[in-house]
Design a protein that fits this description.
binds adenosine-5'-triphosphate, Rossmann fold, alpha/beta, 8 strands, about 220 residues
Length: about 220
């Protein structure tokens, strides 16, 4: 049974924190592949400052180039309307019958699951692989799951809970690099060097498109 990981995000732009997250999860959970899925129309981050989907996808392709086990999945571009994770996961389950699917998210995302469209039901579709940093976030996740009985999570070992669907919520310690896409955008606006904060191909490409990118991020 293939073990597949899916990492959704806006990737505006992709940075090394995203790539490391995908690699750490692949290793910790023995995933055969992790696909990074850029949100075509993120429901929570609409409006200005968002690079066009095609450019975010191009940058992602450059970021994973040559890295075994990582790939980019552009499926959200094919669906009209807001890109809800529920719809994406439903489609992924249909496309990969019998696969062991792990949806990757940060602890911060998990404790806001009730705000997502059909968020508390996501566990009926896939395992939830939740990144925590040096155990930070573990207590918050445990408290959240205890406060939300509708998720039906039963402790199943350290940092692991079983859901009624048979899927698990599993915490994985990921050394979080203290960077975000907002931080990258801010540095780019200032004209600061982005070396080692974004993959080399990404740095080269956004620098080549500097005026177009600045117009969007300013
Ligand atoms: P922004 O600053 O625009 O909110 P972001 O980089 O924090 O951007 P996304 O691109 O949507 O956000 O992130 C996609 C996923 O990657 C999310 O699950 C997020 O928790 C995770 N992530 C983002 N930055 C890091 C990082 N530095 N280390 C580990 N995980 C990260």
């Amino acid at each position: 049974m293939p073990k597949l990981g899916f990492l959704g995000g806006t990737f505006n732009p992709v940075h090394i924190g995203h790539v490391r997250l995908a690699l750490e999860m692949a290793e910790a959970l023995s995933l055969d592949r992790v696909e990074l899925i850029p949100a075509a129309r993120p429901p929570h981050k609409r409006g200005e400052g968002m690079l066009p989907f095609e450019l975010r996808a191009e940058l992602l392709a450059l970021a994973v180039e040559g890295i075994e086990g990582l790939a980019v999945n552009l499926m959200e571009a094919e669906r009209p309307g807001p890109s809800y994770t529920w719809d994406t996961l439903t489609e992924l389950v249909r496309l990969h019958p019998g696969a062991d699917i792990h949806f990757i998210m940060g602890a911060v995302d998990l404790v806001n699951l009730h705000l997502w469209r059909r968020g508390p039901e996501l566990g009926t579709l896939a395992n939830l692989a939740v990144s925590t940093r040096d155990s930070l976030g573990r207590d918050e996740v445990a408290a959240y799951l205890a406060d939300h009985p509708e998720l039906g999570c039963e402790p199943a070992g350290p940092g692991k809970w079983l859901m009624p669907s048979g899927n698990c919520v599993e915490l994985v310690d990921v050394p979080r690099l203290d960077i975000s896409a907002s931080f990258i955008r801010e540095r780019f606006r200032r004209g600061s060097n982005l070396r080692y904060l974004v993959p080399p191909g990404v740095e080269g490409h956004i620098n080549r498109l500097r005026s177009q990118v600045l117009e969007i991020w300013s």
